[in-house]
Design brief:
The chain has a single domain (10-352), classed as Up-down Bundle (Growth Hormone, Chain: A). It is 70% helix and 0% strand. The protein is built from 14 helices and no strands. Helix 1 crosses helix 4 (80-97), helix 9 (199-222) runs parallel beside helix 11 and helix 10 (226-244) runs antiparallel to helix 13. The longest helix has 34 residues, at 253-286.
């Protein structure tokens, strides 16, 4: 039961600051993801393309820090909308600052200006957080429902069959999303795109925002979780296959690029919808463990596999990118089969039995 106190208007300031922090964080994560090839020109001589420490390693650093910093607290994560907005800015706005057309003389220019702008944005959001976020706001709403302690809750959720399947879904699904998000320019190059325009990542995130509004809303309206998770996992398959094998559908470069863009939109629309529903489903099947514990561990495993996937895809100047994309296609089928074995949310079943 929740104490019946009015929420203070100050909470909206906190929410706005958290959203700004999230947007800034996502921009920092994927700053170079959509402009890797021009970045190689800008950073020429500072690293080896065949080394593990390359441009794509910058995206892995974010995921690595997430693993180290989030696991002890199992932070629930910030607003999904702010995450999507931050990634869209990184994917679509970044190429506007950079000379990304290899046929023009300014190819590779603009990084200093872009990094300064993003750095200033990050500094401002950090200052806002220090000023406005308080340790214990007055009139805070206090939850009275009894919950497990952290370690008891962790043990509980790891003993739940449906939670373990959910972890598998995020281990693979979120890992694939993080890897593709980090390697969008390399995927564009594989599709024969000369200009680093960021459209692959941008459309994936735009599709994600639309999907995350529509499908979870339908899930809530019809009080069903499993059918919509199953739909998302099934729809993810053509999205991944379209990104992995567009050249088998056409030999024309423009058509291949169009297939890639459509596939990225489909993938974003469904995989992000699955994420929103999956977080809610995990909280329901693992109750009375804290929601922050269930959501945190799902995010944690997705970052872990994201690091592994990006590391493998970027080795030796993306030598194994195609192999990993083919593996993702197979794994998308695996998680579709896995989602068939989950059961409907026990909370929803309890509501229906009343």
């Amino acid at each position: 039961m929740i104490l019946n106190k009015p929420y203070p208007t100050y909470r909206y300031i906190i929410l706005a600051v958290f959203m700004l922090i999230t947007i800034s964080t996502q921009i920092q994560w994927l700053t170079h993801a959509s402009v890797v090839r021009p970045a190689e020109v800008f950073y020429q001589g500072q690293y080896s393309q065949t080394s593990f420490i390359n441009i794509d390693f910058l995206a892995m650093v974010y995921m690595l820090v997430f693993l180290v910093m989030s696991f002890p607290a199992l932070a629930a994560g910030l607003s999904s909308l702010a995450q999507y907005l931050g990634i869209i800015i990184a994917m679509l706005v970044t190429p506007m600052f950079i000379g990304s057309n290899p046929d023009l003389a300014n190819y590779g220019d603009g990084f200093k200006q872009m990094l300064w702008i993003y750095g200033i944005i990050s500094l401002i959001t950090a200052v806002l957080a220090l000023v406005f976020i308080k340790e214990r706001p007055q009139n805070a709403v206090i939850e009275q429902t009894e919950r497990f302690s952290y370690f008891k809750g962790l043990k509980h959720l790891l003993s739940r069959r449906d939670m373990l399947i959910s972890i598998m879904l995020f281990l693979i699904g979120l890992g694939i999303f993080n890897a593709i998000s980090s390697m969008t320019d390399a995927i564009a190059e594989q599709a024969g795109v000369k200009d680093s325009d960021g459209l692959i990542g941008g459309l994936m995130l735009i599709g994600g925002i639309i999907g995350a509004i529509i499908i979870p809303s339908l899930s809530d309206k019809y009080r069903k979780r499993k059918p919509f998770l199953t739909l998302c996992m099934f729809g993810m398959i053509p999205g991944v296959f379209g990104l992995a094998f567009p050249e088998y559908l056409s030999s024309d470069l423009n058509t291949i690029y169009t297939i890639t863009l459509i596939s990225s939109f489909i993938l974003g629309f469904l995989i992000m919808s699955a994420g929103s529903i999956g977080f809610q489903y995990a909280a329901e099947v693992s109750f009375p463990a804290h929601e922050s514990s269930s959501q945190g561990i799902l995010l944690w495993v997705g970052q872990l596999t994201g690091i592994i996937f990006v590391a493998g895809m970027s080795i030796n100047d993306n030598q194994y990118l195609g192999s990993y994309m083919a593996a993702f296609a197979i794994l998308s089928i695996v998680i579709f089969i896995a989602v068939l074995f989950i059961r409907e949310s026990p909370m929803i079943l309890a509501e229906q039995n009343k």
